[in-house]
Amino acid sequence: MQPFPADVIRTSFALVEPRAEEIGRAFYARLFAHEPSVRSLFGSDIEAQAGRLMQMIAAAVRLLDRPAELESALHALGERHQGYGVTAAHYPLVGQALIDTLAAKLGPAFDGEVRAAWRDFYAYVESTMQVGASFAADARARVA
Ligand code: HEM
């Protein structure tokens, strides 16, 4: 059993996907407005980065019914993020910006049930990415 309702995530993401460009751009605008300190972690092409983020979320949603594959994709993603200078403290900032962006863009469709589902889904993504990040840290400690 996954710790979030996959059907609610799928149904609500179906509203996001056709607007992925707009929502991706709005997400980074919100993140950098609220947390200007994280801007320097990213390169200059935020438009392209927004596309990569939304594609990764779409891939994760498609893998909801293949939990083992989803888990290993998120481990790998978390391991790469360790290399981008991302720390555990960054994850809640990104999660908040994501939830707030979805709320602003989906309006009434982002009701209490949908919000709770995305909060729990993000918590799962975050903790699974951090397991991947810790693999990377362990591997570095072994060669050091
Ligand atoms: C739901 C969680 C997240 C998802 C799905 C996600 C997704 C992605 C994807 C798909 C990429 C493209 C490169 C790759 O695939 O490795 C990327 C790059 C990156 N992400 Fe994330 N990310 C997440 C959380 C975070 C957090 C918490 C931060 C911290 C601020 C962050 C900062 C970055 C940075 C700095 C890059 C590299 C950008 C560059 O090279 O310009 N990400 N992310």
Walk me through the structure:
This protein has one domain: Globin-like. Helices cover 76% and strands 0% of the residues. The protein has helices spanning 6-16, 20-34, 46-62, 67-83, 90-106, 112-143. The chain binds protoporphyrin IX containing FE.
Short description:
It is built from 6 helices and no strands.
Topology record:
Layout: H1 6-16, H2 20-34, H3 46-62, H4 67-83, H5 90-106, H6 112-143
Helix pairs in contact: 1-6, 2-3, 2-5, 4-6, 5-6
The structure holds protoporphyrin IX containing FE.
Residues 38, 41-43, 49, 52-53, 56-57, 77, 80-81, 84, 86, 90-91, 94, 125 line the site of protoporphyrin IX containing FE.
> What is the number of domains?
1
Query: What small molecules accompany the polymer chains?
Result: protoporphyrin IX containing FE
Beginning-to-end CA distance, first to last residue: 38 Å
The amount of helix comes to over 70%
Radius of gyration: 15 Å
- Main beta-sheet strand count, sense and barrel state: none
CATH superfamily descriptor:
Globins
